[in-house]
Each structure stands twice: as C-alpha cells, then as structure tokens.
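Field reference: sequence -> structure
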Amino acid sequence: MPDRQEDPDDGGAPDSPSEPAAAESDAALDGFLPPPPVPRPVVRADLLPALSAASLIALLGVPLGWIWSRLAPPEHGVLAPGGTTSSLVESYHEFDALALFLLLSAGFGVLVGAVLWLVRSRRGPVLLVGAAIGSLLAAWLGMQLGGSFAAALHPPPADPAVGQPVARAPEIGTGWAVLVQPLTCALTYGLAASWNGFDDLGRRS
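Structure field:
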C-alpha cells in the first residue's frame, strides 16, 4: 500500500479548520454586539448659522415683491358715481395675482431649500427650522412690498371723473399665501435628506 505523500508546503499537517471556526464565532458575536451609535443632531453649534440663514432668506422678500408687482396684471374698470371702481370683465385678474404670488413663492422656496442643502457642514434640523422661519418672513415681506410696488406702478388718477377708465393695482386676496414658500422649502430640504443615506446627512463625510 503506497504511503501518503505529504505536501511540503503544509509540513504534512492536514488542513486546519481554525479559520472557518473563527469566522463562525465572529458572526455569532456580531449578534450580541450593540449597534453603532447614531449621531445626535447638532443644535448649539448650528444656532448662529441658522439665525444668519433666516436673516438672509428674509431679504428675498424684496425681489419677490418686486417681481410679483411687475408680473401681476391690474384690474381695469370704470369709475362709478359713488367713487368705486366698477369692474368690467377682468375680475379674474384677482385670481391671476394670487396664483402668480403662489408660484413665485414656491419657486423661491425650492431654490432656498436646494441651496441650503449644499451647505454640507451645517445639514440638520436646526438649519431647516431657520430656513422655514426665514422663508415665512420673506413671503410676508414680499406680500407687503409687492402691494406697495404695485400701487406705485398703477396709481389712481389725480382728478377722477365719472366713467373714466382706471386701472386698479393688483392685490393678494388671502394672507394664507405666506405659507407656500416655507412649505416648499421644507419639502425640498426633506426630500434631499430622505434621499441621503447617511445617519449624519453626510455633514462629516
């Protein structure tokens, strides 16, 4: 009966099962190890940047109001004997003025949310709250300044006469319109955060 030839590389010893056993023990230990800690939101360090962001975002109300006053159509009519403006067929411009403000506010909100997401080192809920507050202030400021800009663009006649055609400045019919910009800003930022796969939103990567 021929002798078994020993492999010179392993010194004649059979294959050791130590490596598979070690892998199995490591896998068993992984089930008992605690999960890695989840990074906690940074609050104190992000307060000042969030306040600065809210202040800068609030200033966007100036271009928002100016652009709206140039795009919103006036409501044409004739001057009635009682001093009121009798609208002709352009009462639908009231809806146009509101719709334009909502669209502009939504666009500004998406822009603010996308730009703030690019500030990687400050990603988190504190910056999101600051952006929402700043967007709310910007929408309110845009509504106030937009009405002033529109009134200056379409002033009433200096010496009105009965039956004279006049153009009434556009107005935003509801104050709830200020909620569109902060909502779209928060939605854009939230979608970007949900798409991100890091526990810390990638701010330390």
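Note: The chain is about 55% helix and 5% strand.
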